[in-house]
Specification:
about 160 residues, alpha+beta, Cytidine Deaminase, domain 2, 5-stranded mixed β-sheet, 5 helices, about 35% helix, about 20% strand, disordered N terminus, binds tetrahydrodeoxyuridine
Length: about 160
């Protein structure tokens, strides 16, 4: 009986650390992304996005989408968070969360994948959707799976 409890415990621990990142940190990122999503400036698409990035040092940087009347000038939430991180002097992202209002959560766009990959070849990204009837949905994907063979400048 005692042994079964111990095994169940270690199995749970194993699941939790599957992506090598503390689930409590991922949760913290989701909360931060959810909060910053409220500040998104999305008068054209009405599609608000919040992102949060944790660094090796333990700092969390946030970003939201900022749209523009010249649509191509729009900045995505993920890139906003990365810009903040670099401007504050950090360059080691270890995990990211992206929160949207749809059912399943949205995967970062191609440009954001490339920008994230510039400083983290791989990291877990939690995708959370707030719009499902069952409440919040979330899944964790890996950046390296979203962007295999990322462009690298080799000269
Ligand atoms: N958007 C993001 O913020 N991140 C993405 O990865 C994809 C799209 C934003 C841009 C635009 O303001 C809105 O979502 C609709 O495309």
């Amino acid at each position: 009986m005692k042994k079964r409890t111990k095994n169940a415990k270690s199995a749970k621990k194993k699941r939790a650390s599957k992506n090598g990142v503390d689930p409590a940190l991922l949760d913290r990122l989701v909360q931060a992304a959810k909060a910053v999503r409220e500040r998104a400036y999305a008068p054209y698409s009405k599609y608000k996005v919040g992102a949060a990035i944790a660094t090796k040092k333990g700092t969390v940087f946030i970003g939201c989408n900022v749209e523009n009347a010249s649509f191509g000038a729009t900045i995505c939430a993920e890139r906003g968070a990365i810009m903040q991180m670099v401007a504050e002097g950090e360059r080691d992202p270890i995990a990211c969360a992206v929160v949207t209002g749809d059912e399943e959560g949205a995967s970062p766009c191609g440009i954001c994948r490339q920008v994230l990959a510039e400083l983290a070849r791989d990291m877990p990204i939690v995708l959370v959707g707030l719009g499902s009837r069952e409440g919040e949905t979330g899944r964790v994907v890996q950046l390296a799976d979203l962007l295999p063979l990322a462009f690298e400048l080799k000269r």
